[in-house]
Every structure is written in structure tokens, then in C-alpha cells.
Design brief:
nine-stranded mixed β-sheet, 11 helices, Rossmann fold, 14 strands, Arc Repressor Mutant, subunit A, three-stranded antiparallel β-sheet, about 35% helix, 2 domains, alpha/beta
């Protein structure tokens, strides 16, 4: 894919990512695609290049759920967990940013060429390296600081003891950004690094709801979403509303579409949407989107 039409962003440019501008020594970025103001609400998902099937599935699902909640997913376009995170965000119709260890016109690894082509249409490929730069080994630890810098927090899904994802987590700690990790079996080498992060104080995460909850406590930059009626919504409320698109639905139907929320938490969100005038409660335990007909 020819990315020669990409742009160069410096920290002085209005379009430069706000999160990255806030860290020490933010670099100029070569960019293919668009960086939007909404990309400030971003979470990095990183991990091993050789995940277990379960780890790959978890990365995909969390990325998909975050994307549906309006969160931009940031990763490094490496094989494994990175690729699963990018794909999850794209398949959910969300945005994703890939930070490369090569020029934005260099497809690496080749197995991710389809993602390489898709990402600029729903996000951006970014790199501090000029066009044509090859993916040299020492580029990847360096680019991990940008992955952290672009994000409000870093989530590690399956990382071995020497995984490069741990470098990204270290940068997040230096940047004052929350570090989160998905726990794994103590017998799994793929989770040895992520389990150690949790032992060292990283937030334990099992689903996208956990990520959103932790970030709201740690960051002032998780903005509220807005419904089509102009009502301010939390990202969780916007996520639920996006999943229950039918005019009339029951709480059970809503839970089948939003399984990451417990029934109690889902009822709390539905009640909040009712109070805000977005939903109307009907007889028989059903709900209706206001402004529609039964």
C-alpha cells in the first residue's frame, strides 16, 4: 500500500495527538489517515506475538467492546495480540491507531497487510520514522513509548517475561498512565509477564467494563458521549444504547447483547437512561427508545 500521501505532524500542529503532546519530548509523527479530537479517549492494548487462542479472543473482544463505547484502540500492528486488538476495533466499526516500528509505507509484518490497508480508513498509521524506513529491531522498543503516549492507559493481554509489551507498560508508568493486565494461568508462559504486572500493582482487568471503570477513576479525560437527542451520556450508557438498537426490548434481550455487564449493572445503566429521558419503561418489563413508536 502506498502511504506516500501521508502527512507529518509536529507537537505545534493542532492535529497532533493531545495525549502524546503531554509526555516529555513528543516526536514528529508521519501519519497515514486521520487523528481526530475524539482519539484523546484512547486505550492501548498490547501483548505477545504468539498468544494462546484464548488470549487472542480476549484481546479481540475487549477491543471490540471499547470501540463500541467510543474508545480509540491503540496498538503496534505486530502479529498476535496487537493484530487482534486492531481487528476487534475495526470489526466493531470503531477507530484504531497503529504505531509502527518502520515507515508508514512499509508493510510489516506481511501477514497484517489487510489491517495495514484498513486502518487509515478508520484511524491512522503513525510512525516517528521517515518513509521507506525498514523495521529494524531497535525501533520497536522505542516506538512503545509512543503507544503509551497516545493512550490514557495501557492494557497488557498475555505477555511473557521478556515481552516487548512490558516495555510499553513501563512507559505508561513513567507517563503517569494506568497500567492494566488480564490475568492468566500461573502455568502459562504466555501470561508470566502480565501476571507479574498485576503482582506489582497493575489493575486486574477481565472485560472492557473494567477498563472503562479504572480509567474514569484515574483520568479526567474520559468525556461523556452524547445521544442523538443531545443528552450527555457516559461511555457505558452510549455503549448499551448502541447495542439495543431495537425500538422495544426487554432487559434479558439487552443483557444478551451486552454480556460484559452484569445484570445488576445493566439494570442500573438502563435506569439511568430512563431518568435521562432516552428510554421509556413499558409494561411487562420492556423498554422503548423515546421518539419511536411501539
Amino acid at each position: 500500500m502506498d502511504q506516500s500521501a501521508g502527512t507529518v505532524l509536529t507537537p505545534e500542529d493542532l492535529a497532533y495527538p493531545e495525549n502524546l503532546r503531554a509526555v516529555p519530548d513528543p516526536p514528529p509523527l508521519f501519519c497515514a489517515g486521520d487523528i481526530l479530537p475524539t482519539d484523546r479517549t484512547a486505550v492501548a492494548i498490547v501483548g505477545t506475538r504468539s498468544p494462546t487462542p484464548v488470549g487472542r479472543e480476549i484481546a479481540y473482544e475487549i477491543a471490540s467492546d471499547l470501540a463500541r463505547a467510543g474508545v480509540t484502540v491503540v496498538s503496534g500492528l505486530a502479529a498476535g495480540i496487537d493484530a487482534a486488538a486492531h481487528k476487534g476495533a475495526l470489526d466493531a466499526g470503531g477507530r484504531t491507531i497503529a504505531c509502527l516500528g518502520a515507515g508508514i509505507d512499509v508493510v510489516y509484518p506481511r501477514e497484517n497487510r489487510n489491517l495495514f490497508a484498513r486502518i487509515p480508513k478508520s484511524g491512522a498509521l503513525v510512525s516517528e520514522y521517515p518513509l521507506g524506513t525498514k523495521p529494524l529491531p531497535w525501533h520497536f522498543p522505542a516506538r512503545n513509548r509512543i503507544i503509551s503516549g497516545l493512550s490514557l492507559g495501557v492494557l497488557v493481554v498475555e505477555a511473557g517475561e521478556k515481552s516487548g509489551a512490558l516495555i510499553t507498560a513501563d512507559w505508561a508508568a513513567k507517563h503517569g498512565r494506568p497500567v492494566m493486565a488480564v490475568p492468566g494461568s500461573p502455568k502459562s508462559r504466555a501470561s508470566a509477564g502480565s501476571n507479574r504486572l498485576i503482582q506489582d500493582g497493575a489493575y486486574l482487568v477481565c472485560c472492557a467494563r473494567d477498563v472503562l471503570s479504572f480509567l474514569r477513576h484515574e483520568s479526567e479525560y474520559i468525556p461523556e458521549a452524547t445521544s442523538a437527542r443531545g443528552v450527555s451520556l457516559t461511555l457505558e450508557e452510549a455503549y448499551v444504547l448502541g447495542e439495543v438498537a431495537d425500538n422495544v426490548f426487554s432487559a434479558d434481550e439487552a443483557h444478551s447483547r451486552v454480556p460484559s455487564l452484569s445484570p445488576g449493572r445493566l439494570l442500573s445503566v438502563l435506569s439511568s437512561l430512563e431518568v435521562k429521558g432516552v428510554l421509556k419503561r413499558l409494561p411487562g418489563g420492556k423498554y422503548m427508545l423515546r421518539g419511536t413508536t411501539e
